[in-house]
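Fold this sequence, please.
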Amino acid sequence: MYKSIKKIIKIALITLVSILLLLAGLVLSLQLKPVQNFIAKKAVSYLSKELNTKIALKNIYFKPFHSLILEGFELYDTKGDTILIAERLNASINLNQYWGNNKIVINKLTLENTSAYYQVYKDSSNIKFLLDYLNPPKKDKKQVSKNLIFDLKQLKLVNNQFRYIDHTKKHYAKVVDFGDLDIKHLNADFQGIKFDNNTIQLDIKQLNLIEKKGLEIKGLATNAFVSNRKIELKKLLLITNSSIIKDYVKLEFNGFEDFSDFNNRVDVDLNIKNSVLNSSDIAFFSSAMHRVKFDLKIKKATAKGKVNHIDAKNIHIETEKSTKLIGNVKITGLPDIEQTEFKLSNLKLESTYKDLQNILPKLSNRKDFKLPELLKSANTIIYNGSLNGLYNNFKIHGEVKTDLGSIYTESSLNFQNDFQYDGLYQSKAFSIGTLLDNQVLKTSGFDLNLKGSGTSSDNLLLAIDGHLENVDFKNYTYQHIPLTGKIVDKKFIGSGAIEDPNAKIDFQTEVDWSNPAIRYNLTADINDTDLYALHFSQQNGIIVHSTTIETNLMGSNINNLVGETTGK
């Protein structure tokens, strides 16, 4: 009896050891590349038949419980068009939780030199057959006790390509087309990945790519949240061709199909600070922006709404050397910049003549635009008020402070064709003498309606109606001078009156500079005018009670005038 039991135990031990050796041999054989490739090719052949398509795999290496490497993997759709070509896929895995929790942990998944192609048709896509296979009708599904859970910790992309085309959408040749994307040199490092059926959270440590239209993402780092209704990017750093955007972006939508009409269907929530925005990057999304040039430093700004109707507040923008804009703005009509309306409120704009001469030609798409030379003396310009209209045709309502004085205005400015202006301009004291480089004319107040166009004496058209007040001329202050006139064809024709305790003068004048020798014609009716009080005479008591003076003079400057002056 004892011998029989001993014999049974010995046979059992030999059998157990044999089984263990067989299993060990099987495990060891599975680590041999030829064995793994043989099994992989059998699996690929099986899947090809199951899916009725072409699948290829060059090499596979599986280190049990640790890693999986695929090389030369290819997947095609049922028409024979490429879906995926992966030169190398490397997965570092952990199966410790598989047995108890049915979970496979992928510590790091690396895709190298992979090209993926996704195409959408009217009723399907090029991967529909895969989705149908993986999600068969309920009656065909086998009951399973637990769903298999994948936990991906890190995803790294090295020199990949993604091609997407939606054949149901209209396509655009000049701008980035979200229905026709070709992304190359895609490199990324996604960490801290958490996902369920509807959401993904991850830390994007690094991402860069180039889109076929020329848009380049040189760097992207952010804490990202993605769902089928929202994309939220916190601690954002985005570097593109010529721009740097920082801080926070949130996009809300009804579904990813809304991105095919991004400007009208996706809600945007931005909080931007210490960023740079260049118009050339916006032009990747709006062809009209190729006509506008600017480079802005955004100190801070918040914005909400859709791209075609956005409300921005607490804006602080700087550009050039000395230009600063602070305020709120509502923008309606983007991305068509030619039809986009801007409404700026609580606006403070600071600039200089030199900055404006650099900004306005680029902003108005007029390289030949020149500010009047005489405005150089205004130098620093500070505007407080509102601004409404198109980027090159707008209405202003506020106060302009310059080195020469302050002007209140309700007017319009138009840069679309020629420089045009129309409206009310008022000042209590403005250094007109400095503006006109005239030593005897100093400050003057005015209340004028001006309507004109042009920026030089050669193309100036101007209508003037209003009055001057407190005019300091030859150190005498004239109280009130009504004035009306026009400039056309290099000629000023005007009339006015001096209504002052020491002078009563009505005048009509014509100044013609269409020839090198400028012609000055003046007719003035002078009554009860004290020449001594007006500092025209050093002798007291010289008063002109009633006379008419006519001049007909010609010359290129005040020192070479010739002609005649008559009085009666």
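The first strand starts at residue 55 and ends at 56. The chain has a mean pLDDT of 83.
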